[in-house]
Amino acid sequence: MPFVWNSEMHKFLAFFFVLYSPYMAFALECPEGQYYATSLSTEFPTTNVVVPRDPGNTNGGYKTASQLANYVETWSDNGYTVRAKANVAQLYGVNSGLFDGFNLDTGSPYFYTHHVFDSSGAFKDQNFKFQGDPGVTSFVDMGRAITPESMTLAARITAGNQVDFAPGRFKVYGSNNAADWNSTNSATWILLFAQTTTTTYPSRFRTFEISTSTAYQYYALHITHTMKQTLCFFSEWDIIGTFSQCLELPSSKCPVGHYNSIGSLTEFPTTDVVLSGEDDGFKPGSQVENYVETWSDNGYTVRAKANVAQRFGVNAELFVGMNLDTGLAPYFDTFEVFNSGGAFSNANFKFQGDAGVTSFIDMGGVITPKSMTLAARITANAVNNAPGRFKVYGSNIALDWNRTNSSTWILLFAQITTTTYPSRFRTFEISTDTAYQYYALHITHTMGGSSCFFSEWDIVGTVSKCLACPAGLIASEASTGLADCKLPCPAGQFSSNTASNVASMCGASQNEACPAQLSSVHESYVASNGNDGNIDSMVHSSGSTAPIAHVFNIDFEQMRNIESVRFFNRPVLVERITGAEIRIGSSLSWEDNEICATLNSDLIQTYNCNLVGRYIFIIVSAARAQANFPLNFMELQAFSACTSCPATAISLPGSTSSAACGCPAGSFEETRALNPPYASRSYSSLLGDHHSASLLDDAEHIQILTYYSISIQTNVSL
């Protein structure tokens, strides 16, 4: 039925959409050229929060005005903005140490509300409610949508019975409505978890699983009871979950006019790194965590760093081209960060959620890895301090250089058990066809030593470069090799996706064998056998020993861009054709045309030509003819991706689409719409002299572009 804007149905649907739209899940759709990526399980927010203290503040270190209800603290977290606040004033500020990555030694500030609970631990101020429920609420705007898996909560670390002041009963909510940041009662706040009874803390940490597949940007921790105190303070609450994002696809395409050239297997980086050191070998400042060393490698900039401070610098001589005679220093050396069993002992340093030492390198350009090589240091018993268990990752996102947890870090290899080194060298194969610019070696265990040091790690792989096609040749955007560089199509043709044998595309139908000629004929082995599509029929010149070349040619009847040719030799006496030439050009004199190939004795031979011409020739030289070598073969095919425009249409040289075929100069394309003047008419019913329905039959198929209907007022009542 007609659907008008003031209909009752429209009003109902509009009401339905407004009422339920907050609950509708919308999938993240990535635009063209990007891909959908989901992170690993991560603690959010991911950036430690440092609340600045006011100078001279002696009241616990809190920031002036941060004790006000709904005071908002804002900070940056990996490029997006995070906000936090509470609905009840806190003694030590809103953020305090709630979102500092489970660094629980926060002292003060921390989450602290003052005497708003009664002696049994129940919240006592009815003026502060969330979702109709009195209590203290801590809000956080993550800055992006997070799919939660669990919520972690930790009591404060101090002497005494601090767990008594921790949250005892509480609820966790999520929302995707920005207005909810300022709303304490809304249907768009979704309950994710409820702790409705006061139970003891098994330890200072508590983890509460959240069962939902919906991502939320806004979260609220609503505390209705402490464990049993009038004050509520605790060190930390965080959401553990994943986030999804659209990332740029690494481009493997070369620009138009260029082709992809793949180099040989090479050890990367390719340039030796030399650090200017002091007497003890390390460079001043290079022992600082995340210190970055930068150097030039064949015209691109390479960087290296580690997530744990190294005694002898970041790069040390890790990338010196497997020159293992490094002496005492520098080399990769992290000091006493592994335990007596060789396991990494500091949980504050993680990569992809896994504790360990990580060595990062930015190659300066993308490398397709085939293997990773690792070498222990040259000293007595140094293998004990070499990496025992480790993982190798790759990424193409520049931000990952500064990220220790991201879905764009792709695991390439994992050594998950500690095995002996067969020698000081170890090589680990990497199975991937994807090129990466950023690499990470993440070491979780040594071979058994409490320090980790070794001489070398490198990526062995290939690098691809986009090189310009030779002069006069063009290539498409997706070109993968020099063979993709081709001559532009002549005027009146366009480049198609597939190449066709144009030796069989002549005549009015463009589907006939092209005319062929042979300088002399032996018996019935005529020239037309050379491009009739039958590889069992043979061309054979006469056996004359006169010093005159034997010549075969095909006339394409128009200019053709010949990309490649395929030649089918005679199955016997194959050596006869050796040395014969294939030439292509626009001259009927074969000597004036360019050589495409010189034939050998193979049965089937294919050659790339990239030549333009109307004629293709096979020539057995006069010297070979005089030596009694006739011209004989089975079939010659000539391939071109250039397709002729339809009849009466033309295109400019170099056209790459059928859309380039248009009308020639002096004419134009016209579309006319005419009312068929002589259509027969029939009618469904009559009422007096008036027709209530009619049918027009034009007696042929026509395209209806538009129609007009004219109503004439009459005095007839129907």
Question: Which SSEs are present, and which pair or pack?
Answer:
Blueprint: H1 8-20, E1 34-38, E2 42-44, E3 73-77, E4 80-86, E5 111-113, E6 129-130, E7 133-134, E8 136-154, E9 167-175, E10 190-195, E11 205-209, E12 216-226, E13 232-234, E14 236-242, E15 244-248, E16 258-262, E17 266-268, E18 293-297, E19 300-306, E20 332-334, E21 350-351, E22 354-355, E23 357-375, E24 387-395, E25 410-415, E26 425-429, E27 436-446, E28 452-454, E29 456-462, E30 464-468, E31 493-501, E32 516-518, E33 539-540, E34 550-569, E35 581-585, E36 594-598, E37 604-620, H2 622-626, E38 632-644, E39 680-687, E40 690-697
Antiparallel strand pairs: 1-15, 2-14, 3-4, 4-8, 5-13, 6-7, 8-11, 8-12, 8-14, 9-10, 9-12, 16-30, 17-29, 18-19, 19-23, 20-28, 21-22, 23-26, 23-27, 23-29, 24-25, 24-27, 31-38, 32-34, 33-38, 34-37, 34-38, 35-36, 35-37, 39-40
